[in-house]
Design goal:
disordered C terminus, 434 Repressor (Amino-terminal Domain), 2 domains, 6-stranded antiparallel β-sheet, alpha+beta
């Protein structure tokens, strides 16, 4: 009898977590692609560790996989209103891109702000997420595609748009891009609660007998 692999969030890459959860739910790559808005080819690469989902991609996967963001990585929970430059809150995610949270996690917050540090040559998968986004390039050169539009951005350039179309971006330069993102709805507040059922829906309480 073949021994089943035991998967734990801690110390396990996103590829294994994604593949394990999809198989537990009995979803094909095509079904997951249709429900998440991501391509089946990208999901296949992600499950084999050949591609790494962005935070937005992971959020797109939480609903069809019936998990919270906590399934993939530890979601920030502090609510400090002050961020010190010498003490950044780095979001620990298995990615070459460094994500630094700038927003505070206020109760009922309406937006999030994240600093991206994107290494040379790195390209994000095409994503779609209903909401509003503002990107501001602090340093470097960024290639940005949205729908059928293409933009070459440099330090000081910005984009502000409703995310009704799929978009992607790539660092075509020779040095890291430092990119400020501010967007709605917030990335983390809707996923703050730790899932105590490992992604499974909590059973309904039986009504008390009178």
């Amino acid at each position: 009898m073949k021994k089943k692999e035991v998967i734990s969030k801690h110390g396990v890459g996103i590829a294994a977590l994604l593949r394990d959860r999809r198989k537990k739910l009995g979803l094909s790559l095509q079904e997951l692609a249709k429900q998440s808005g991501l391509s089946a080819s990208f999901l296949s690469q992600a499950e084999r560790g050949k591609a790494i989902p962005s935070i937005v991609s992971l959020i797109s996967l939480t609903k069809p996989l019936d998990v919270s963001l906590n399934y993939f990585f530890d979601v920030p929970k502090d609510t400090t209103i002050l961020r010190r430059g010498d003490d950044p809150e780095v979001i620990n995610i298995d990615s070459p891109v460094t994500y630094i949270r700038l927003s505070s996690g206020l109760p009922d917050e309406k937006m999030d702000a994240i600093l991206h540090v994107i290494p040379p040559g790195w390209e994000f998968p095409r994503v779609y997420r209903a909401g509003e986004a503002f990107y501001y390039v602090l340093d470097g050169e960024l290639h940005f595609e949205m729908g059928d539009q293409t933009f070459e951005l440099a330090a000081g350039d910005s984009l502000h748009f409703n995310t009704q179309l799929e978009y992607t971006m790539k660092n075509n330069g020779e040095k890291p891009v430092r990119l400020l993102w501010v967007g709605t709805p917030p990335l983390f507040s809707e996923h703050m609660a730790e899932s105590k059922t490992d992604g499974k829906k909590k059973p309904k309480k039986k009504p008390k007998k009178s």
